[in-house]
Amino acid sequence: MGCPGEYPGGCLARRCHRPRAWLWLIGWVWLCSAPLLQAEESGYFVVRDVRSSLDQGVYLLDANIDFRFSEAALGALHSGLPLVLRIEIRVEENRRWLWNEAVAVVNQLYRLQFHALSDRYLVHNLNTDTRQSYTTLADALYAVGFVRNFPVLDARLLDPGKTYFGRLRATLDVEELPTPMRLWAYVSDQWRLTSEWYRWQLSP
After folding, report:
1. Domain total for the chain?
2. pTM (2 decimals)?
């Protein structure tokens, strides 16, 4: 009796197992090599320094941030996918016996996009709706990370008798990615690009 589902190339039931075997082999190789690839190709964000000063009753912030994209983020950017960079700034009251209380929370957002036709990088400040283009990615990322005289909060919101400190970090906002890519970004180190919080004392 012939094999069910037999066709001129042979038994369908037997041959269907071969693609599954190849898929298992490919998956196994990928799992073994993924940590090595990520170690070589993962990026990082680092906040180098932050300073704040009081000018006419408003706290202004200066910061220097280094951005290095992973290979996955670079590939997506150069394929035309916009990437959103978020600079998070928090001012908190230092409370000894209770949780620190946030006095101000500010998010500065930039959309970075590569235009293949012009071979330039466009930085769109989503807070002010201003745009600037750059010839190299390094120049574009330097402009985003070179923060000067950024207004954080009005000094009248602070109690002179209390102690306050600021915290800042930079992240790649995966929530702004398309849904299929966002699901992958949640579990991939290639897309987990977030700096450590940088803390500094808020001077009166």
Report:
1. 2
2. 0.76
